[in-house]
Amino acid sequence: MRKIFDFHGGIHPPENKHQSVRTPIADAGIPPELVIPLSQHIGAPAVPSVAVGERVLKGQVIAQPRGFVSVPKHAPSSGTVSAIEDRLIPHPSGHSAPCIVIATDGQDEWIAHSGTPDYRQLDKAALLEKIRCAGIAGMGGAGFPSAVKLSIQPHHTIQTLIINGTECEPYITADDILMRERAQQIIAGAQILAHLIEPGETLIGVEDNKPEGIAALRAAASGTDIEVVEFPTKYPSGGEKQLIEILTGKQVPSGGLPADVGVVCQNLGSTVAIHDAIVEGRPLISRVTTVTGNSVREPQNFQVLIGTPMRYLLDRAGYEPARGNRLIMGGPMMGFTVPDDRVPVVKTTNCLLAPTEEELPTPPPAQACIRCGMCAEACPVSLLPQQLFWFAQGKEHEKLEQHNLFDCIECGACSYVCPSNIPLVQYYRASKAEIQQQRRDHEKAEHSRQRFEARQERLERAEREKEEKRAARKRAAEEKARQAGGDGEEDPIQAAIERARAKKAVQQAGGGESELEKLEKAVVSARKRLETASAKLAEAQAQGSDLVDALQTGVDKTRGKLEAAEKALQDYQASDSAAAQDAAQPGDAAQAAIEKAMAARAAEASLSPQEKARKDLKKLEQRLQKSRDKLAASRESGEEEKIIEALEATVTRLQDKVEEARIAVQDAEEA
Amino acid sequence: MALLRLSSPHAHGPMSTARVMQNVLLATVPGIIVLTHFFGFGTLVNIAWGCVVAVACESLALKLRGRPPGFYLRDCSALVTAFLLCIALPPYSPWWLIAIGIASALFLGKHFYGGLGYNPFNPAMVGYVVLLISFPVQMTTWAAPRGVGELPGLLEALQACFNPASFDAVTAATPLDVMRQNNSLLVEDLWQRTPQFGRWAGIGWEWANLAFLAGGCWLLYRRIFTWHAPLAMLASIALLAALFYDGGSSASGGSPLFHLLSGATMFGAFFIITDPVSSAVSVRGRLVYGALIGVLVYTIRVRGNYPDAVAFAVLIMNFAAPFIDHYTQPRTYGHARGGKED
Ligand code: SF4
Ligand code: SF4
Question: Range of B127's domain?
């Protein structure tokens, strides 16, 4: 005997399963209209591949998957596409979503299809592709695409494959009846999965309240290495994580996958669907759904086409709408109420529950939490629901996360036992949504904070560099003054050499960027940015993304900046060619300065030192004025930061020079 | 017809707060019967008058707080507070003592904090301690048990309550008092010389404790609370008593059995510390909570100055409950053992 483990908590609500298993699976027939939502699974919705007015055959693909986590949609019966529009869909939010509507013609004419009974010939990728193309997504819970779940990452070794036949929710018998009537297909499907995954063992887990189903499965499984494991009935043993614990004693790490502990789980209904898809080539276009509750006269299971309006299905079971006031898709513990009885049956519709008020009374108003701890005792995840409730009321999100709110599986066991009738799960759902919203907001804020900090740091660095340059210049000036004081008579050649040297030192100290270089760099980087932005824009246009407008504006702006930068560079070169030359060839600056100074000595031999100094000063003052004008102009026109910075640097440098020249004039006059 | 939209789960279990409280009330009955048998009608009169005051106080408090009294009274929590406090009070307490106790319990102990579920302290014990500190004389005189003194009849009991001046009770020191004050006699001799002692502990007390134990077990069976806190408290009292029994010398604190069946031990273990609102919540937390209460009870009984220690021990541990909770959060499914990972 296999060792069965227990999980913490759990409850034993009235099962109410006997009502719907008295008769075999009935065919629900073809409704006049089928409504197929484009998204019935987790992941990206499918994209319609048929047009309104087109005739479609049963099993024909009518919508293509988009992306990896997505599955196609097939026409459940033959007919004509009458509309592609938003319809109410069964979803907890009760919203509308795009659907393909087919007016059926009653002929139920199949498209050509063929199965692959010798699937062992196929390689795994081909098998997975077939499962995906058959549109199979988890048929019990959230509807996760099966092919994705079955694609095992190379770093995972799968010890155990579990087929989940637990069906722990009260009222639902869809899996139970499948076991009783289609045990062969279940076992065959499990074998396909085992072939695909190559696990150490394959288990089918069933609660012990389904003895007939277990017997049928065991009979079908004899001679295979598939083991049917029976364990005590307790809600929610069918939760994937709980089932894994029951059968293996292992717990899936929080936030992890079953594969992390070497387990893959598949729903029983999906296993049958996979069998049908591989062996018979039939896509997932119908499913077994339990119709039950005291508002239907003949509770039973139906083979129903996906897209069948719920009202049509309910009527097959003798629905008396006047007797109940709500319609639940799924079971009484985790199901949700649908807004309207015309919403379609989808791939995850395992049960339609139409209870009367006496059967499932509207909850009375909640009383205060008396901290009785019954919820904590019932919680299968070992949370402290009363604490979570307390924190949820106070919106203490940090505490909620500390108390592992996100490990809550929303099974409803806590609400079920709460003597104060507190709708605990509702609080948890709301808090989860709030926290997720907050995380998104926070991420955004964090992003802009980082951007701001990066900018701040850039500005500071520039400021530091300026400061260093200024200090270096000052040192150079002092040096010169000292020499001037020492020689008495200044040798212009020597001075020029010194000046050039000093300048070089300044450039090196300050990171070696002259204004010209800065401007050039600005142009280059603007050009680069323009290129990337244009590339992005082109990409977005190709994909038809809705970001195109935003990107277009970005490109235009960048282009403007590039033009401005180019103009600034030209201006600079034109207006200050001497300085530019000087700066452009820092390596030759000393040589050039020497030559210039020699020439100037010849020319200025007649000039007195005072006159010479005054002339220098005047020249410098003119240059300073020019630079200032330019700076003001660019500030006004909202020039790019970099250019303004460069111009500012020029102005400061010239100011310093003018100052030096003034001192030189005074010196000369005194001498 | 529009379909009703409701959030899951749609099914609800049979339990309700009122049911929980009614179960607790019912479980006190055996204990009350035994107390009445051994000490006369005093406790019954206490409870009757206490319930009247409690309903009045609760209604007033709810009115003042702007809540519909009808809805909230139905949870029966005020009645539970009244029962618990009145069982703890000495039989034949005067009406004003009971009224002050109940009013303190419900106002100071409960509604000042926002009502049921928000009170950090056990309301009944708040009331008890207020009385013990304010009226130590009235609070420490117990009627003599059947066989030691003459038991008053029902009429006299009513008189004791509503016209206290005209009532003169036969009182006797409780066995716990006798044990604590003893420093000259061997435990065995003490037993022979004191008429209040019975088979294992005091006359009346031992049976009352057993009756409360029975009521508590029934509540356990009904799954109203879990065994953790009561068992931990009883175990720690028994353990300490065994450690300091000292072979029954004159310095002995009394045998484990004596402590388990004396004073409010069982009543405290199953009816007071199990008050869910003010206790620790997790399983491990309740073990710690119960065990520490046991330690305090024993220590105060043997070393302290008060006749019994349950009230103080519980209030002190009510303070500690949030901290205990903080450190005993259960390991959630799929999380590493021993603290949190991040
Ligand atoms: S079951 Fe309800 S009343 Fe009891 S502790 Fe949990 S939330 Fe509070
Ligand atoms: S709904 Fe969440 S908190 Fe409540 S019992 Fe289930 S897992 Fe625990």
Answer: 16-172
| Residue pair A277/A284 in contact by the 8 Å Cβ criterion | yes
B272 alpha carbon – ligand 1 mean position (Å): 18
d(Cα A428, Cα A425) in Å, to the nearest integer? 5
Residues A429 and A491 in one domain: yes
For ligand 1, atom 3: residue with the closest CA = A369
Rounded to the nearest angstrom, the minimum Cα separation between B18 and chain A is 8
Cα gap B197→B176, rounded to integer Å: 10
Asked if residue B35 is part of any domain, the answer here is yes
Atom in ligand 2 nearest the alpha carbon of residue A413: 5
Minimal-distance CA residue to ligand 2 atom 7: A408
Where residue A512 falls among pLDDT bands split at 50, 70, 90? very low
Do B204 and B131 lie in one domain? The reply is no
Q: How many Å apart are CA A514 and CA A618, to the nearest integer?
A: 23
Which DSSP state fits B330?
P
ipTM (interface pTM): 0.80
If asked whether residues B142 and B189 sit together in one domain, one would say no
Do B235 and B146 belong to one domain?
no
Q: Does B337 reach chain A within 8 Å, measured CB to CB?
A: no
Cross-chain residue pair B276–A363, CB shorter than 8 Å: no
Q: Which residues touch B306 (CB under 8 Å, ≥6 apart)?
A: B132, B300, B312
**Which ligand has an atom closest to residue B15 CA?**
1
Residue B55 falls within a domain, yes or no? yes
Mean pLDDT rounded to a whole number for chain A: 83
Hey, are the CB atoms on B71 and A321 less than 8 Å from each other?
Answer: no
Q: Residue A232, Cβ neighbours under 10 Å: how many?
A: 13
Give the lowest-confidence range in A406-415, A505-514, B194-203. Answer: A505-514
- Residue B232: predicted pLDDT: 94
Distance CA B305, CA B297 (A): 12
**pTM score of the predicted model:** 0.71
Q: Mean pLDDT per segment of 10 residues, for chain B of length 342 residues?
A: 74 86 92 89 90 92 84 86 92 90 90 83 91 85 73 80 74 73 70 70 83 93 88 93 77 80 88 86 88 91 77 89 84 69 37
CA-based nearest distance B293→chain A, Å: 19
**Do the domain assignments include residue A360?**
no
Residues of chain B with Cβ-Cβ distance to A8 below 8 Å are: 333
Does residue B181 sit in the same domain as residue B197? Answer: yes
* Residue with CA at minimum distance from ligand 1 atom 7: A386
Domain span holding position A579:
513-603
